[in-house]
Amino acid sequence: MSGSEEEPLAPESAETQQVETEPVEPGEPLGTPGRPLDRTAPFYFGFFAGLGALVAWWLGTTLLSIGSTLLLVVVAFFLAAGLNPAVEAIQRRGLSRTWSVVTVIAAVLATLALFVGAIVPVIADQVRRITQQAPGWFAELQQSERVRWLNDEYAALDRLESYVTNGDFMGTLFGGVLGFGLALVGAVFNAFIIIVLTLYFLSSLDTTTHALYRLAPASRRERVALLGDRVVAGIGGYVSGAFLVALTAGITSLVFLFVVGLGEYAVALAFVVALLDVIPMIGATLGALVVSAIGFATDWRIGLACVVFFALYQQVENYVVYPRVMARSVDLPGAVIVIAALVGAALLGVVGALLAIPTAAAVLLLVREVFVRKQDLA
What we know:
The protein has 378 residues and is mainly α. It has helices spanning 14-21, 42-65, 67-91, 97-141, 145-154, 156-165, 169-173, 176-203, 205-213, 221-260, 266-276, 283-298, 300-330, 334-377. It is 81% helix and 0% strand. The chain starts with 13 loop residues before the first helix and ends with a helix. 21% of the residues are buried.
């Protein structure tokens, strides 16, 4: 062989061939993995259970801290759903969605402004009259021997007379000038937030609801959308029914006030009764208290007639008018309407009473369409 020819390579060792053909597993140099943790071990269970409890507690406190904000959002959404039928009715007459929303909101704001303009002069005038007539009322009370004895023992009548005739009892009632001012600023701020959110939800209600429907699985999205649209329509029906009940109360009160001799304030007081009557269960009582107080300040016979009239009308409204109108609007039995209003008022006060009935209608619809139908197929 010539010197230019390359000598054949020596055969590779067995170890070299093994390294090339059989790569070492990456996990072998770090040791063999051990057995997984025993999920039934007390320490494991206690640690993750405690961690879950801490997370739940943090979420609960967070929700409680923003509860007032969430309540404003819920109220705004309910108002938007309730005003949506009016917007759609205007749209059917050829107006665009934007201008329909503006028209409905302007009508609502005008109604609220009319309420404030109607009630504030009446309240101011009646407070002035009560302050002027209070000494005569107290003088009549002191003619009773029992009242004189109580006044001699505890000076209660003298204190009450001084409290009323000083003219500052409205400020004291609201916690003084500073407390009243803070309450007024808070109410105006909350009203502004609700109006802004209502405008947003009302202008984009379809977009918002369809975005929520997309969170459901594709196989159930159509059914969820149908149920959601039915719930929104039920809320709109409830608002229409509440408006009809309030209109009935306002017209009935207007006729009564003209007949009984309060024609000077009949329109304003009837408007107050109609607006307060929107509040379920207790709205008619609040309106009756306002009108009766003004009636007594004018003449005790008129006040007594107001008490008798509103006591009778409230029974008719609670057990005849309200259940029948709401049963047609939100498809709820009368007993469920009464129970829902009472529970909502106990939980969230006036706001809870307003939201309780459409919420109960939505829950009952879901129970009928989901749970009951599933039970029927079982």
